[in-house]
Amino acid sequence: MTTQLTLIQIDNYGPWTVTPEPRREMDLQTLQSRLFADIAQFVGSRGGYVFFSRFDNMIAVTNGIGRAGHKSLQESVRNRYPVTVSLGIGTAETPAAALDAATEQIQAAGSAQDKSRTEVLAGEPLDGDADATTHMAHFDVNDATGKYTDQLNEFDSFIHIERSYASLMEYMREAHGALSFFVGGDNIIAVCPELPTNAYQDAIDHVEDDVGVELKVGVGRGATAHDAGYDAKHALEDCRYEGTAVEFEYPQAATGDD
């Protein structure tokens, strides 16, 4: 099973933000948020997921999107924004390895602040014969409203949520080569290789032991990020209904203990 990731990097963005003089911060924030929204809509309409990461560098799960789709994305950004984007495509058995490959493709073409490096499109998408099954895990905080939103001010609530995200993000990256992203509220979505139930339970236990925040997770799989992510949402609803910590929206393979 292979994951296809695309690194989306704004070309020469740092220097642009201060040329000919520093630009107003809220203008930059507006540009970044609008650009992310447009890219998310473009990729999402083709079955992909995009995560804002640092905004000047975004990470997309693009299983099922070929070179033509990537070129169209670059053209759309060029026609609508005062910046351009370079795209690196990487494929591998784990999301982390796929991102490494995508990053190497862009870095080989030049620095992110090289004004002569624009609209790079590097790397090869998966071919139609590859097993492109994607696994997505949708985590959320148990009773975030009751424990945090209705009890604490927003910034202190945010600290608790961000601590859980940081703990989970690092654990999943190091233990499984998975990439986890905060997506708002108390929600974290992880792009994962195929993992068993106990791997997710171990991650949940780690976060609770590390920062004292309780999580639950629904897991889905599919040919595209949308398919897998939508199944993960349904599995997360099963967690809420059943009062469980880990649920899958697809049958699990039997273990040696069965």
TrEMBL record:
GO function term, MF aspect, one: GTP binding
One family name in Pfam for this protein: GCH_III
Enzyme Commission number(s) from the entry: 3.5.4.29
UniProt keyword terms in alphabetical order: GTP-binding, Hydrolase, Nucleotide-binding
Keyword Cell wall biogenesis/degradation: no
InterPro entries per UniProt: GTP_CycHdrlase_3 (IPR007839), Nucleotide_cyclase (IPR029787), Rev_trsase/Diguanyl_cyclase (IPR043128)
Key word GTP-binding present: yes
Catalysis performed (reactions): GTP + 3 H2O = 2-amino-5-formylamino-6-(5-phospho-D-ribosylamino)pyrimidin-4(3H)-one + 2 phosphate + 2 H(+)
HAMAP family in the record: GTP_cyclohydro_3 (MF_00608)
Family: Belongs to the archaeal-type GTP cyclohydrolase family.
Function summary: Catalyzes the formation of 2-amino-5-formylamino-6-ribofuranosylamino-4(3H)-pyrimidinone ribonucleotide monophosphate and inorganic phosphate from GTP. Also has an independent pyrophosphate phosphohydrolase activity.
NCBIfam families noted in UniProt: PRK02240.1
Full protein name: GTP cyclohydrolase III
Gene expressing this chain: gch3
